Amino acid sequence: MGWTVGAEAVDSDVAVALWRAYYTEVSDRWYLLHEGRATDPDELERGIAGSDGAELVPPGGQLLVARYDGEPVGCAGVRLLDVGTAELTRVFLYQRMRGKGGAAVLVAGAEDAARALGAARLVLDTRSDLVEARRLYMRLGYTETEPHNSSRYADHWFCKRLDVAPGSVREI
Q: Which Gene3D superfamilies does the entry mention (predicted)?
């Protein structure tokens, strides 16, 4: 069966569990790097509760879930920023699934979702400590650019043109 990627409601149990895992990992990594500790549990809960994922709901966005042999193991989101630009966000795979090719499949699914939303380019931001993410994006043809936002947690910004040939958009 292998890897599959499909649309998921942001409020599904699967999506909520993946959002919690993603947020916990990126928050803990930031705090460990900058303050030498994991995220305070109360702060972690506030952060998780602080995003309902509304920006990832059609028609302006889409949440995708990666599954391996049917088991949900990762996610990615896209949201329209303007008529031709979408942002890639929440790209995540459980640690035990990394290095198995799923990240490339997940990002390809997100690129297809962005095309389906009408985007001709996809932008994203990431942090310096997320070295593996930066390597992935460069390997997949993303180019480092000037900042497209003022996120406190962003150190690197990337962009990729989404070539859309007639009839090339796949349903997700």
A: 3.40.630.30
- Hey, what domains does the chain have and what are their CATH numbers? 3-161 (3.40.630.30)
pLDDT exceeding 90 applies to what percent of the chain? 70
- The residues, any chain, with a CB within 8 Å of residue 161's CB and separated by 6 or more, are 120, 121
Cis peptide before 41 (omega within 30 of 0): no
Query: What DSSP element (H or E) covers 17?
Result: helix 13-35
CA–CA gap between residue 96 and residue 161 (Å, rounded): 31
SS3 sequence of 93-139:
ECHHHCCCCHHHHHHHHHHHHHHHCCCCEEEEEECCCCHHHHHHHHH
Q: What is the pTM of this model?
A: 0.88
**Where does the pLDDT of residue 171 fall: very low under 50, low under 70, confident under 90, or very high at 90 and above?**
very low
d(CA 84, CA 97): 32
